[in-house]
Amino acid sequence: MLSFSAEYFVFQFAIQKFNVKMYRTIILPVVLCGCETWSLTLWEERRLRVLENSVLRRIFGPERDEVTGEWRKLRKGELNDLYFSPSIVRVIKLRRMRWVGHVACMGERRGVYRVLVRKPEGKRQLGKPRRRWEENIKLNLQEVGRGSMDWIELAQDRERWRALVNAVINLRVP
Q1: E runs forming strands in the chain
Q2: 15, 43, 111, 124: most buried by Cβ count inside 10 Å?
């Protein structure tokens, strides 16, 4: 028979495991709905990381410091060690890369492909231009060292594209 503290630890672990499963199956799909077409700025990526860290802090709770004996919030690195899945920004980049590979293989007659590669006409708004969706794809390719390649041609070869998508998901975000 387990002692009270051991039973409590097992119970807490089961609750954490259940809460992580709820986060992955309910919260993440709602937050990431349609993320393949988002054009994220750095500020928006930061806000998504803050959301993820706050949810994970809520799941894993505070930790007692061994030296002082006081309770403290878990840091980002500690949260990443406890939560073994890729960060929310990595998931967005993975889904975007998968989707762009799918669209690039569609062909020029399809409407989605034409919208993806078209050049807008007319005047743009004043101020700094917003980051376009295609620029996000090029930045993702630069992160894995393939920034100089044409991503449409690269997506035509399924094996190379799949290896590239796996490389994007395995990168660590600072």
Answers
A1: 63-64, 71-72
A2: 15
Q: Which of these ranges, 10-14, 68-72, 138-142, 168-172, has the smallest mean pLDDT?
A: 168-172
* Residues 98 and 146 occupy one common structural domain: yes
Residues 6+ apart with CB under 8 A from 149: 141
Which range has the worst mean pLDDT, 26-30, 33-37, 118-122?
118-122
Q: List the domain range (segments joined by +) for residue 159.
A: 90-119+132-170
Taking only the tens place, the pLDDT of each residue in 84-102 is 888 898 889 888 888 888 8
User: How many domains does the chain fold into?
Assistant: 2
